[in-house]
Amino acid sequence: MTEPANFFVPGPTWVRPEILQELARPMIGHRSPEFRDLFHAINMHLKTLFATRQSTFVVTSSGTGVMQAALENCVARRVLVTTCGAFSERWYAIAESLGLEVDRLDAGWGRAVDPDDLADHLARHSRAHYDAVTITHNETSTGVTNDVAALAAVVREEAPDALVLVDAVSSLGGIPMAFDDWRLDVCLASAQKAIALPPGITVVAMSDAAIERAKKHPYRGTYFDLVTYKQKADDDGVPSTPSIPHFYALAAQLDHIINVEGLEARYERHRRMREITHARTGRYAKLAADPAHASATVSALTPSMAPDAIRKAMKQRGYTLGGGYGEWKDTTFRIGHMGDIPIADLEAMLDALDEVTRA
Ligand SMILES: *Cc1c(COP(=O)(O)O)cnc(C)c1O
Question: Are residues 203 and 277 in the same domain?
Fold first, then answer.
């Protein structure tokens, strides 16, 4: 009998015991046929998960490393960063640290980026003004999901030369993604959020256009050269020694997500977790984000009592919840309802939260 999930942090998330077992397998060489077979199976599944026929690969790094890589590979000069919370602001910090020219379109914490605002901003510049625009699919600090399809469509219309770089860290595997249909260029997701693996790797989809753009940049570095990742992945290989245990775990987890649970059922379970969380916390907490854009994977809540006291009382009952983040650190707490958490375990946690907030 599996222990119920008791870890409701919005990353890293609760990992199924079967998946933890996968990490304990004996090593294989990363140039061996066994590894190629393993990576081939992973890439087939990644194409399904991202909904793409273009390149997919895996980088042994947390998501932030690949955010940096996306900017280093795809932006020669100027980038527009859309922001609505701490993780979308990270794109800005990285771009600045790389010495890029960076503009920011800020929706404000708790709100979604408005496609009309993006269109207005882009319309003021020439089609080639920006090399890229960054979008954060799911803003984990506030619990807001941006409409990537609409935002990417605006970029295609108003700034056709700009590449669309998407952070799908806390959405991929919990919220629908359509890389090709939405015409995205780079999309990345760390493993430790809705994909529900231990942290340490990041999955990536990259368009042919982004590869061509990257090839024009002579100094892409070595470790994070995404052109090399793509070329190696075409032959089910990797540039350097990856975290092989993660590859076993990722293959097993993608098979579970796609063939056992099924993508549609998984997205529906996440939507239900959002609805249940909203309905059952309303007595003692307000949703901190704009309800029209509330995330299916994480809820930031402003409770009527001290958030820290709630988290402490829950900890005594064996439950770990997420703290507030950045600007919202002292006023909110967060419930991560993403990954493999069973509905019944979410309900059990909310029962405990109900008692704690009545005490
Ligand atoms: C967690 C998170 C990140 C950072 O990912 P790391 O894997 O910790 O580097 C970036 N963006 C979003 C939306 C996140 O939720």
Answer: no
pTM score of the predicted model? 0.98
Q: Is the residue at 164 inside a domain?
A: yes
Q: Tell me which residue of 189, 206, 236 sits closest to 64, measured CA to CA.
A: 189
CATH number of the domain where residue 195 is located = 3.40.640.10
Per 3-state DSSP, what percentage of the chain is helix, strand, and coil (rounded to 5)? 45, 15, 40
Q: Is the CB of 63 under 6 A from ligand 1?
A: yes
Identify whether residues 51 and 174 lie together within a single domain.
Answer: yes
Residue 49 buriedness (CB in 10 A; 0-12 / 13-18 / 19+): buried
Q: Are residues 245 and 285 in the same domain?
A: no
Q: What does the alpha-carbon distance between residue 69 and residue 71 come to, in Å, rounded to a whole number?
A: 5
Is 173 a member of any domain? yes
How far away, in angstroms, is 70 Cα from ligand 1 center? 14
User: Same structural domain for residues 152 and 190?
Assistant: yes
The answer to whether residues 205 and 308 belong to one domain is: no
Answer yes or no: is the C-beta of 64 below 6 A from any ligand 1 atom: yes
Structural domain including 209 reads 18-258
Distance between CA atoms of residues 200 and 223, nearest Å: 15
Answer for the pair 274, 335: CB distance below 8 angstroms, yes or no: no
Atom of ligand 1 nearest to the CA of 170: 15
Give the separation between CA 5 and CA 14, rounded to whole angstroms: 7
CA 359 to chain centre: 36
What pLDDT, in 10s, does the model give residues 106-144? 999 999 999 999 999 999 999 899 999 999 999 999 999
Concatenating the DSSP letter of every residue in 43-112 gives HHHHHHHHT-SSEEEEESS-HHHHHHHHHHHH-SSEEEEEESSHHHHHHHHHHHHTT-EEEEEE--TTSP
Q: Residue 241 is encoded by which pair of tokens?
A: 């020694």
Give pLDDT tens digits for 203-244.
Answer: 999 999 999 999 999 899 999 999 999 999 999 999 999 999
Report how far residue 322's alpha carbon sits from residue 349's, in angstroms, rounded to the nearest whole number: 13
Q: How confident is the model at residue 1 (pLDDT cuts 50, 70, 90)?
A: low
Q: Which of 333, 327, 328 is nearest to 357 (CA)?
A: 333
Counted domains in the chain: 2
User: Ligand 1, residues 142, 167, 169, 204: which to mutate, most atoms within 8 A of Cβ?
Assistant: 169
